[in-house]
């Protein structure tokens, strides 16, 4: 996959974001995307080859690995990054649509970056709700698939074609657990930032509407 496209997408949305939104972009870049590319890919690179069971029964090791790791950590983390960043496309499409519609009027769409109002505000709020929803869904998915966020050293498997209960060992469990905790913590931080930005925009828009009604009433 091309991570450059993801970086360009987030950078383009950044100029229409609030300060909280820019912090979210920085965290996605520095604490998630860069950590994923530099470290996480290497840690989970050979997880199947380094998964060992104390038996040579053909097929037993593959079945046990598939049972305990139904989806690769690294692929699920990549899918999470993609899905969390995808709602930002709505903001990009909305801005492009408005600019194409109004370019013949020589009219500037927004007075300054971060000044979100009207249809763009609705699109931006929807993108925040979707990003928060995807974050929560993937955290729950991680927890359900792997029975928590801790990678065990030893797992016991008794699935056919294994003739009895066998011990299987996972490589670098401590290192994987540390990075998994780090990525989960950064995901939780992104959820807090999204909810904070959502609350801020709703509060700001409510105050703006109230002031308009107040001024109109007294005029």
Number of alpha- plus pi-helical segments: 7
CATH topology: de novo design (two linked rop proteins)
Largest sheet: 3 strands, antiparallel
Secondary structure class reads: mainly alpha
Protein name: Gap junction protein
Transmembrane segments: 20-39, 77-97, 118-143, 178-203
Function: One gap junction consists of a cluster of closely packed pairs of transmembrane channels, the connexons, through which materials of low MW diffuse from one cell to a neighboring cell.
GO molecular function: gap junction channel activity
Which key features would you list for this structure?
de novo design (two linked rop proteins); gap junction; Connexin_CCC; transmembrane helix; 5% strand; mainly alpha; 3-stranded antiparallel β-sheet; 219 residues; 7 helices
Topology (SSEs and partners):
Layout: H1 3-14, H2 19-43, E1 52-53, H3 60-68, H4 73-85, H5 88-102, H6 118-146, E2 154-157, E3 166-169, H7 173-218
Helix pairs in contact: 1-2, 1-5, 2-4, 2-7, 4-6, 5-6, 6-7
Keywords: Cell junction, Cell membrane, Gap junction, Membrane, Transmembrane, Transmembrane helix
GO molecular function: gap junction channel activity
Domain Connexin N-terminal: 42-75
Write up what this structure looks like.
By secondary structure, the protein is mainly α. It has one domain: de novo design (two linked rop proteins) (Up-down Bundle). Helices cover 68% and strands 5% of the residues. The protein contains 7 helices and 3 strands. A 3-stranded antiparallel β-sheet has the order 1-3-2, with helices on one face. It is found in: Cell junction, Gap junction; Cell membrane.
């Amino acid at each position: 996959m091309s991570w450059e496209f993801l970086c360009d997408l987030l950078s383009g949305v950044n100029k229409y974001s609030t300060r909280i939104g820019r912090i979210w972009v920085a965290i996605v870049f520095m604490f998630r995307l860069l950590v994923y590319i530099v470290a996480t890919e290497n840690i989970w690179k050979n997880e199947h080859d380094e998964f060992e069971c104390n038996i040579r029964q053909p097929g037993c090791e593959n079945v046990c690995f598939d049972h305990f790791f139904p989806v690769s950590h690294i692929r699920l983390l990549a899918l999470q990054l993609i899905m969390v960043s995808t709602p930002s496309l709505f903001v990009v499409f909305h801005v492009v649509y408005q600019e194409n519609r109004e370019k013949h009027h020589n009219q500037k769409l927004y007075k300054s970056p971060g000044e979100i109002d009207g249809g763009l505000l609705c699109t931006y709020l929807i993108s925040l709700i979707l990003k928060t929803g995807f974050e929560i869904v993937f955290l729950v998915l991680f927890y359900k698939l792997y029975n928590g966020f801790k990678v065990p050293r030893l797992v016991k498997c008794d699935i056919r074609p294994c003739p009895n209960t066998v011990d299987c060992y996972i490589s670098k469990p401590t290192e994987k657990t540390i990075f998994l905790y780090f990525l989960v913590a950064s995901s939780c931080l992104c959820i807090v930032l999204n909810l904070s930005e959502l609350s801020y925009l709703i509060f700001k828009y409510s105050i703006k509407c109230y002031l308009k009604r107040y001024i109109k009433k007294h005029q």
